[in-house]
Amino acid sequence: MACVTLSVVRIWEEIVSVDVQGYCDEKFTGVSELFAANIEEGRDVGASFALTIDGEMVIDIWGGHLDEQGEKPWQEDTIVNVYSTTKTMSFLCALLLADRGELNFDANVADYWPEFSAAGKENVKVWHIMDHAAGLSGLDVAVIPEDLYDWDKIVNLLAEQKPWWEPGTASGYHAITQGYLIGEVVRRVTGVSIGTFFQVEIAEPLAADFHIGVPESEFDRIGDLIPADDGGIASVIDDPDSIAGRTFGNPASPAANSNTDGWRRAEIPAANGHGNARSVAKLQAPLACGGSAFGVDLFSRTTAESVMQERISGKDLALRFPIAFGLGFGLNSQLMPLSPNKNVCFWAGWGGSTIIVDQDARLSASFVMNKMFAGLMGDVRSYQLVQRVYEVLS
Fold first, then answer.
1. Helices within 173-276 (DSSP H only)
2. Residues in Cβ contact with 136 at an 8 Å cutoff, skipping those fewer than 6 apart
3. 87-114 in b/e burial notation, b at 16+ Cβ within 10 A?
4. What is the C-alpha separation between 317 and 306, in angstroms, rounded?
5. Within 10 A of 69 (CB to CB), how many other CB atoms are there?
6. How far is CA 72 from CA 18, 34, 64, 75, 234, in A?
7. Which of 36, 106, 270, 336 has a 20 to 30 Å separation from 117 between CA atoms?
8. What is the CB neighbour count within 10 angstroms for residue 118?
9. CA angle, 47 as apex, 41 and 48 as ends, to 5°?
């Protein structure tokens, strides 16, 4: 898509009796109308949606409330826990280090983290941890949710553990552990935590309001998530001895924990990032645009395009559905068609937050909400919003 100048109109009026605020290019009015209808009809309580094209924000809307009683409106600067959409920020950190020549995805993890070579893991590759293929999707040693706040404890357990399957032969969603694995590699390379590296090297240059480990000064504007009955986890741990059962059973992460100070303060790079649709879409815009967006040259076009090269595919051992992975991100494919375009990657967070990056259309689109969807698959809220975008672009 060639660079274009897009006119922007303000939205302050009520749409379907829901006060949707922000701005939206006038040709995407149908997107804002669907967004409002989702709130009006109870599919959402409070939410935000953002779209960038050619490295410019063309939709940035929010609406609804922070509480089910409808007493506290979602604000422009509201942030919430986006669960696994956080993972895409850890991918950016790894991509940036690779672009600088400080990290090789085909190297052994132990080259950067020597202790990791224990228990037969000396040949586990960096791309294996990026693509949930390291065989470390859960922990053998039982931990409690609060143990996730102890970085050294979790990474030491992972370093000592034997893989559950032969690394590189299959993916098995590393729901919580992936962030510690990538994060420890980042720490060994840079000498700082992944939360710090992300904030200084990526979030601040892009002026993006996203945190892996939220400063207490920002707690007042965090919206609590509204959990579903079981969040869909029960559907994959019917057999506690299966890969899925062991993955989601230990470490466990109850949704209610996301509303605690301890969870917000910790760095859990696979699960506890806090932001809104604006910040998520803005952060992924460079990936959509050959490495540069919003005046920031984050990494090279070659690095950006490397994300779209399939590394592993098939039925995921933990998620139990077929999926293809590039570098970290899931890929648009016949297994999971999300876009009419080829070079598209994505990821989503437990409850419904989503990011889609389309390098062919040079767009990034994000949906962030507080009402959690009751399931691991089947939430169509973000999908329908993005399809409205594609209808306009087609």
1. 177-190, 194-198, 243-249, 261-265
2. 129, 158, 161, 163, 164, 174, 177, 181
3. bbbbbbbbbbbbbeeebebeebbbbbbe
4. 25
5. 8
6. 14, 22, 9, 9, 31
7. 270
8. 14
9. 130
3-32 exposure pattern, b = at least 16 Cβ within 10 A, e = fewer: eeeeeeeebeeebeebbbbbebbeebeebb
Tell me how far apart the alpha carbons of residues 64 and 35 are, in angstroms, rounded to a whole number: 10
- pLDDT: which is higher, 375 or 27: 27
CB 116 within 8 A of CB 126: no
Q: Is the pLDDT of residue 377 over 80?
A: no
- At 137 the three-state DSSP class reads coil
- As a whole number of angstroms, the distance between CA 85 and CA 102 comes to 25
Question: pLDDT for 290-308, tens place per residue?
Answer: 999 999 999 999 999 999 9
Q: Which residue has the higher pLDDT, 338 or 103?
A: 103
Q: Domains plus CATH for the chain?
A: 9-83+271-311+335-393 (3.40.710.10), 87-205+229-265 (3.40.710.10)
Alpha-carbon span 280 to 310, nearest angstrom: 23
Phi and psi at residue 63, to the nearest 5°: -175, 175
Tell me the mean pLDDT in the region 259-270.
97
DSSP 163: P
Give the angle subtended at the CA of 192 by the CAs of 186 and 197, to the nearest 5°: 70
What mean pLDDT do residues 156-182 have? 98
Q: Which amino acid is at 345?
A: C
Q: For the segment 220-255, what is each residue's pLDDT rounded down to a tens digit?
A: 999 999 998 654 565 556 788 899 999 999 998 889
337 versus 127: which is more confidently predicted? 127
Peptide bond into 269 cis (omega under 30): no
| 14 — pLDDT class (breaks 50, 70, 90) | very low
CA 365 to chain CA mean position, Å: 12
